[in-house]
Design goal:
alpha+beta; 8-stranded antiparallel beta sheet; 7-stranded mixed beta sheet; globular
């Protein structure tokens, strides 16, 4: 029998023992060594050969991932590991580190109970380390730390034991500060900081396949002095044989990460707002494989042979072929065609996957990433909130008209697989817009459409996504319907950042029970009376109904909301989305007769009223910003900071780290297009850099009119602004 078949059989046997299951994700900043570490773990589990581990990058299954040397899609694998005489099943997800693919990290965290955070010993905790930690802790996922590339401290930086200890202690301290800051308001988390003594910190080199932790040193009798000597003398093979990385990390996973039986009682209240007294809540808490099926889809992938494969976490019941299951938000049922587990890039079919495991299912045609799939109709899980929003757009057109239907189908598929991508399909012009997290994100998507689907496409220049936001409260404004029989009285005011953040994070939404929503809004600073009158939330905008006892308003409210949504999606300056606005509906006069207060009357009236109120509130254009960090040798520091300043950016900090200078700054996304090639040539290819989305800022007054005109021209709008916008 083949080795792989044996592993699959062993995984199947262990699936029914939730106490011995660990669901984990590996997460880190880009290039800190996650995928190389995953290779080591696969080799340790006997799934790939020991010699090629670290170079094979088995979890980067797509060709473009291997070419670019980065992980783009989160990849799943199931493996077994013996710890203290008991065999454990470990379901692992290797997640991307590049900021453009942060959506995959957020979704992976929903499926797992533990996150192994990898940090480069030389670079320390970086911006994306902070982001992945935040994503894990928000989902109630417990972290442990692995400090990678320790070999570089010994051989490249030639650090002595003292210096090295100081550096490692400082990395652990930084990570713990982040964890403390993020968990201080979380009542259900005791103390999740990591510590060497407790064994929740490991050190090593994924490239040279050795690793140590306090328990492993006690077991093998090795100390840091010996490790440094072997590393300095290039005896890395002996190091690997005496203290293999996979044993150290997998032991840490088995000992310190919770199993589903311990994790689910804590996680269910965090991610599900259903009745916690119900039988269903009880079966999920108990990880009952005989209960009703509850499966949360965290990822959708295309298999050329099997079609769509939905993978995710089984919280209750057992998934089997032939089951008829409900998919949240859609009518009817879907029939399960097959169930399986992932072995890296390959999917192995099995008879059933019980609660507490990560499964791969075909046949769920209505599911998207974030769907709740169940055997009975139920309250779905909380939607997966992605931390960043699309900031850059490209148009995509099929080169030949014959490919158009196939392209539309493919784009729909793309948005199903990756909810952080927004697709706008204009059936009239044949132009399709893809909005994503950054240049690389869009480049990868368009490349895959061409390669995998064989559709030649033309792509336009990247277009930056802007926002509009009022700067002050407006007066009460009247909106009159075209037939002059209906009137609406509206005012607006900008919302404080705390309130906007609560909506962005999904902590206050219209899907929640009213009482919970009120409390969340009040905690973020909203007045008690206002929180009781919230009628609608659209994007990061809130509509408050201040009217009292107006006849027919209830049946007209849906149209009022439609008019407001239209006005918010297409702001008055340049048809860009409006954000962070509190809208008050003060009063309304409605015609008695339904015919005279239909959509053609109400929608224009409310849309125009809101646009006038926004202009009265001095609405301005906001542009997306990016934080940039550049690590560069001393003599290229001027060129690096010049690259940020020359892009309308500002340099916030410069400091020495090891033998490199670090330049930190912020610049508009619009100016950062093409940054990669410019920084390479400015520093002779010696700079390492990364960028991270930093939200939206008001564009400087001197550029407002010029940019608004440019966008209006691109969108084919009238070039003169309404006379009331005289402040720009």
């Amino acid at each position: 029998m083949g080795r792989r078949k044996k592993i699959v059989q062993e995984c199947e046997r262990l699936m029914d023992e939730p106490e011995n299951i660990r669901n984990i994700a590996i997460a880190a900043h880009v290039d800190h060594g996650k995928t190389t570490l995953s290779d080591n773990l696969l080799a340790g589990a006997g799934m790939i050969s020991d010699e090629t581990a670290g170079e094979q990058l088995a979890m980067d299954t797509e060709e473009d991932e291997q070419e670019r040397g980065i992980t783009i899609d989160a990849a799943n694998v199931s493996m077994t590991h013996e710890y203290e005489g008991t065999n454990h099943l470990i379901n692992l997800i290797d997640t991307p580190g590049h900021v453009d693919f942060g959506g995959d990290v957020t979704r992976a965290m929903r499926a797992v109970d533990g996150a192994l955070v990898v940090v480069d010993a030389v670079e320390g905790a970086m911006p994306q380390t902070e982001t992945v930690l935040r994503q894990a802790l928000r989902e109630g996922v417990k972290p442990t730390l692995f400090i990678n590339k320790v070999d570089r401290l010994i051989s490249e930086l030639q650090e002595g034991p003292e210096e090295m200890q100081q550096r490692l202690v400082s990395v652990i301290h930084d990570v713990n500060e982040l964890i403390r800051g993020m968990t201080q308001d979380m009542d259900d988390i005791d103390d999740w900081t990591v510590s060497v003594e407790e064994g929740t910190v490991g050190f090593g080199s994924a490239l040279y396949k050795w690793g140590v932790s306090m328990p492993s040193m006690q077991r093998t009798g090795m100390d840091f002095g010996e490790i440094m000597e072997l590393e300095r003398n290039d005896n890395r093979q002996e190091l690997h044989e005496r203290t293999p990385l996979s044993d150290v990390v997998l032991d840490m996973v088995c000992e310190h990460f919770p199993n589903p039986v311990d994790a689910q009682p804590m996680r269910i209240p965090r991610i599900w707002r259903g009745d916690d007294e119900s039988d269903l809540a009880e079966t999920m808490r108990l990880v009952d494989e005989d209960g009703e099926v509850v499966f949360m889809v965290t990822d959708i992938a295309m298999d050329p042979h099997a079609g769509e494969v939905a993978s995710g976490r089984v919280f209750s019941g057992s998934l089997e072929k032939g089951q008829e299951l409900y998919v949240s938000g859609t009518a009817g049922k879907n029939r399960v065609q097959s169930v399986g587990i992932y072995m890296g890039g390959e999917r192995e079919e099995v008879d059933h996957v019980p609660a507490g495991n990560i499964a791969a299912v075909t046949g769920l045609r209505d599911a998207i990433a974030g769907s709740t799939v169940s055997s009975i109709e139920m309250t779905p899980f909380e939607s997966i909130e992605h931390i960043s929003e699309p900031v850059i757009t490209k148009s995509v057109e099929a080169q030949t008209m014959d490919d158009l239907p196939k392209l539309i189908e493919t784009l729909r598929q793309v948005s199903k697989e990756d909810p952080t991508i927004q697709i706008t399909i204009n059936e009239d012009t044949g132009e399709h817009l893809i909005s994503g997290q950054g240049e690389l994100h869009l480049e990868v998507i368009t490349q895959r459409i061409e390669k995998n689907q064989g559709i030649p496409v033309n792509t336009g220049e990247p277009i930056v996504v802007y926002r509009e936001q009022p700067q002050q409260p407006s007066d009460e404004i009247e909106g009159i319907s075209p037939n002059r029989h209906n009137r609406f009285y509206v005012s607006i005011e900008p919302m404080p950042d705390e309130l906007v953040d609560v909506i962005k994070m999904g902590e206050a939404s219209m899907d929640m029970p009213e009482q919970e929503r009120r409390e969340a809004l009040q905690e973020a600073g909203m007045h008690k009376d206002d929180s009781q009158e919230v009628e609608h939330i659209h994007g990061t905008n809130i509509l408050v109904d201040d009217t009292k006892g107006i006849q027919h308003l209830n049946e007209t409210m849906e149209l009022v909301i439609e008019g407001f949504e239209d006005a918010l999606d297409n702001g008055p300056l340049a048809n860009e989305p409006v954000q962070g606005t509190l809208i008050r509906l003060h009063d309304a006069r409605l015609h008695e007769d339904t015919i005279h207060r239909g959509p053609a009357q109400v929608i224009p009236a409310t849309r125009n009223a809101l646009h006038k109120a926004l202009i009265d509130g001095k609405i301005k254009l906001l542009e997306p910003m990016q934080d940039a960090r550049i690590d560069v040798p001393n003599d290229h520091m001027g060129a690096a900071s010049g690259e940020i300043q020359g892009r309308r950016g500002r340099v916030d900090d410069m400091y020495q780290e090891g033998d490199l200078m670090v330049v930190e700054g912020i610049a508009p996304v619009d100016e950062m297009i093409g940054f990669a090639s410019d920084i390479r040539s400015a520093t002779e290819g010696r700079a390492a850099w990364n960028t991270e989305n930093a939200g939206f800022e008001v564009m400087s007054d001197s550029l407002q009119r010029e940019k608004i005109m440019e966008i209006r021209e691109r969108k084919g709008m009238k070039l003169e602004l309404p006379p009331s916008i005289d402040y720009i």
